[in-house]
Amino acid sequence: MNKVVQSASEAIKGIKNGMTLMLGGFGLCGIPENSIAALVSAGVSGLTCISNNAGVDDFGLGLLLQKKQIKKMISSYVGENAEFERQMLNGELEVDLIPQGSLAERCRAGGAGIPAFYTPAGYGTEVAEGKEVKLFNGKPHILEYALSADFAIVKAWKGDRLGNLIYKGTARNFNPMMAMAGKITIAEVEELVEPGELDPNFIHTPGVFVQRIFQGNNFEKRIEQRTIRT
Amino acid sequence: MNKVVQSASEAIKGIKNGMTLMLGGFGLCGIPENSIAALVSAGVSGLTCISNNAGVDDFGLGLLLQKKQIKKMISSYVGENAEFERQMLNGELEVDLIPQGSLAERCRAGGAGIPAFYTPAGYGTEVAEGKEVKLFNGKPHILEYALSADFAIVKAWKGDRLGNLIYKGTARNFNPMMAMAGKITIAEVEELVEPGELDPNFIHTPGVFVQRIFQGNNFEKRIEQRTIRT
Amino acid sequence: MLDKHGIAKRIAQELRDGWYVNLGIGIPTLIANYVPEGLQVEFQSENGILGMGPFPTEEEVDADLINAGKQTITAMPGAAIFDSATSFAMIRGKHIHLTVLGAMEVAQNGDIANWKIPGRMVKGMGGAMDLVASADNIIVAMMHTNKKGYSKLLKKCTLPLTGVGCVTKIVTNLAVLEVDSGRFKLIERAPGVTVYDIEKATEGELIIDGDIPEMNI
Amino acid sequence: MLDKHGIAKRIAQELRDGWYVNLGIGIPTLIANYVPEGLQVEFQSENGILGMGPFPTEEEVDADLINAGKQTITAMPGAAIFDSATSFAMIRGKHIHLTVLGAMEVAQNGDIANWKIPGRMVKGMGGAMDLVASADNIIVAMMHTNKKGYSKLLKKCTLPLTGVGCVTKIVTNLAVLEVDSGRFKLIERAPGVTVYDIEKATEGELIIDGDIPEMNI
Predict the structure, then answer these.
(1) How many domains does chain D have?
(2) Are C55 and C76 in contact (CB under 8 A)?
(3) Is A203's Cβ below 8 Å from some Cβ in B?
(4) D125: closest CA among B96, B131, B106?
(5) Using beta carbons and an 8 Å cutoff, which residues of A are at the interface with D?
(6) Cβ contact (<8 Å) for D91 and A113?
(7) What is the DSSP string of A91-154?
(8) pTM, 2 dp
(9) Mean predicted lDDT score pLDDT of chain B
(10) Which of residues 108-147 of C touch A (CB under 8 A)?
(11) Which residue in the list C46, C105, C188, C203 is annotated as catalytic?
(12) Is the CB of B113 less than 8 angstroms away from the CB of C96?
């Protein structure tokens, strides 16, 4: 069992035009920077990207948007990216906006073999259009389907050769559920360690969910809103 | 905000005849021993207990069964308890047997505001009788409903005054989901610490799910199958 | 008339000891600065933290610790970090006692619109739809009128909805109002604001029951 | 004819490097002792551990570390602990490559019964229904006949089902068989066992295609 690959470009092998990818992160926090850079280099296009946000104009998924490598985005909030808004309003980019909690739960469901579940989120809004509605305790809920992806790409703090991952702070966000939902899951970590170095009791993503792992380098970890207490 | 109570008997205040309880643990591993003892002392009866197992004859939920305090058990496996089997076959005890994964997911759903979800488990068996069936990718799934409880009683390794919990080893099992699904959740811990002593990055159950917490004493932690390598 | 900080201060009076609270972006964020002395309130940010603390000092800044507005934050002692699915499990499962968020429009039946202006603004709903669909106690913090002077408290929302019949209370620069059997019930006036001022600024139907006290802030 | 250990040894030949494997109680548990040299296989126990190791020494015994059979175990380097919902997320989500479990009856269409004898045995299905409903690769490890000498490989199960059409392979004390278009296809004979012995012990329809090799164990 060896899941370790040597570089981001090796990790993304097999990602082809038209595939569906999940990418972890909230804003620019906890995004797989190295893998995104490798996708830009590889020039793969026509991608459907499932990611809570779409990066900013010059970082994160914004880099793939600039190069027109993304055909469709499935996200909950895309407010920080002018190029995204331009492409969407011009009809160059398909966009499926999903309530954040439904997005998280749909990814988890995809990884957990739950094909669909009911949630109250979005009932009575355009999000519910065309969806099955059912009352529970008199309250309407809509049926939401699981999401999965050809490849899920996540970013963790530490990981071992078996794919066990731990995340740091709020860089965890969508990464654990997406790791579950990829047919192939790639983990990009700040520090790659040997099995046994991570405490089994505090693993966030068990290795069974991860197929490839590599230690990234030169993480920029850009901050979107640097707010300081004086 | 003070969730700390001084004893198991204080913790179970408000548990009344006929209520529904969830109790964490797998076999005798990770069960809330002190709270069960307090329930026996309190003599509360007519209980519906949701617990993966039903203890053994003289420990765990077996103690409540002996005293006929349980009206109905909702479990996945009850093979280690002769008194249970006797009461069930004699019709003295209602029993709802549920696939273990569905039980875990139904508890999580109850805590997560998901009223129902689809699972393939149990399709074509008596577990599916009377349940809605829906095909996903051509495969039949059954609709399972969320479980919740008047009180959830969980056992953790360490916990702080705000109710944050960490579990040890496979004593985690059902405890985290049940902690989510109680209207009132009681946590019995081996060690009660001050806020700040547990690393925020490695909390298993965030305090928001816990309403009462106390440090138990004299944990027996009985082992069902003591298997040794020679 | 209140400014943004005044609105935040007034909403802070609604807090109770031991509550878990989710604050939206904008005015709601300011509420954390006005928690009454002696109360312990835990702030949840839907990107995955309970026990959110104040902004960091220059030395404390950590790119891996942000709030839902993508601002750098700190964690209080006793904080807990979790993933997005668990975060919305808390929200959907009604474990959060109070949700405060901004709005572009609120209707007198409690509908809220705050995520989309068709053909113009495309930001997405983020976590707002989950929050408003699940919470039992939702306070909207906003200006009473928009930049053009039009009322944001309407008979019926004109923008795409975020949630239906969910808002319980609205605190604006002019007033505190509750949604009461399909109308806005006026509860308090902002300092120096008359009932007439509020009537003029409110397109939706108002219930004005007896003397309306001035806020005490 | 094989004993329990022989059955376990034969099934161990099915393992592949890098597989995650769930072993049921009884004969399946023994398979962990026969992992072929050079293969790394991770064992999952549905009560919440990946990377299950051998039984502990007297000193290592930990009441907080057990397997699904409630036996004390150890954790291998690189193990991971998780809750029951996550454990069954792995199982239901098809992240486990192989499931091996015992059975009271298997039918020629792949149905399995192993949890209940009406009016007599009431133990519950535990995780078995989730496992058989989700796994793509399910091997049943059992004796070919029951204690009374009746076949456990049937045209149709008589006991309440655990899962429908899910079993892919059966390894017994007499043979290896696959479920193939609604019948049992005989793949291998146990050492010293004839095809005739297997036919006699099998109530369900058998496909016997050419010479049936003897197991190589």
Answers:
(1) 1
(2) no
(3) no
(4) B96
(5) 1-2, 108, 110-114, 160-162, 164, 180, 194-196, 198, 200-201, 203, 206-209
(6) yes
(7) TSSEEEE--HHHHHHHHHHHHHT--EEEE-TTTTSGGGTT--EEEETTEEEEEEE---EEEEEE
(8) 0.97
(9) 97
(10) 111, 119, 122-130, 133-134
(11) C46
(12) no
Task: Name the residue facing C71 among A124, A222, A227 (closest C-beta).
Answer: A227
pLDDT tens profile D79-119:
999 999 999 999 999 999 999 999 999 999 999 999 998 87
Q: What's the whole-number mean pLDDT along residues B139-165?
A: 98
Task: Provide the angle, in degrees to the nearest 10, between the axes of the packed helices C84-92 and B100-112.
Answer: 70
Set of chain D residues whose Cβ sits within 8 Å of the Cβ of B95: 122
> In CATH, what number is assigned to the domain containing residue D83?
3.40.1080.10
Chains near B (3 or more Cβ pairs under 8 Å): A, C, D
Residues of chain A found within 8 Å of residue D44, distances taken between Cβ atoms: 208
Per-window interface: D 175-214 vs A, CB < 8 A? none
Give A82's pLDDT tier (boundaries 50, 70, 90): confident
Beta bridge partners of D42: D20
Domain ranges, residue D69: 4-207
Question: What pLDDT is recorded for position D120?
Answer: 78
Which amino acid type is present at position A34?
N
Task: Find tokens 């933290």 and name the residue.
Answer: C49
d(CA D184, CA D187): 9
Tokens (6 digits) for A159? 């990981």
Strands A94-97 and C49-52: unpaired
- Is residue D166 a part of any domain in this protein? yes
Instruction: List residues bridging with D176 in a β-sheet.
Output: D171, D188
| B76:D124 CB<8 A | yes
Q: Which fold has domain A8-114+147-215?
A: Glutaconate Coenzyme A-transferase (3.40.1080)
CB C73 within 8 A of CB A199: no
Of A148-157, A206-215, B188-197, C122-131, the range with the lowest mean pLDDT is C122-131
What counts of helices (H) and strands (E) characterise chain B? 6, 11
Banded model confidence at residue C123, pLDDT cuts 50, 70, 90? confident
Active site residue C59: no
Q: Per the domain annotation, does D75 fall within a domain?
A: yes
Question: Does position C122 have pLDDT exceeding 80, yes or no?
Answer: no
Q: Residue C216: inside a domain, yes or no?
A: no
Quote the CA–CA distance of A188 and C180 in Å, as a whole number: 52
CB nearest C82 (choices: B110, B111, B206): B206
Helix intervals (H) in chain D = 4-12, 27-30, 84-92, 128-134, 195-201
Q: Is C84 on the interface with B (CB under 8 A)?
A: no
In a domain, C217, yes or no: no
Selecting from D72, D125, D161 the residue whose C-beta is nearest the C-beta of B76 gives D125
User: Which amino acid type is present at position A139?
Assistant: K
Query: Are D77 and A164 an interchain contact pair (Cβ–Cβ within 8 Å)?
Result: no
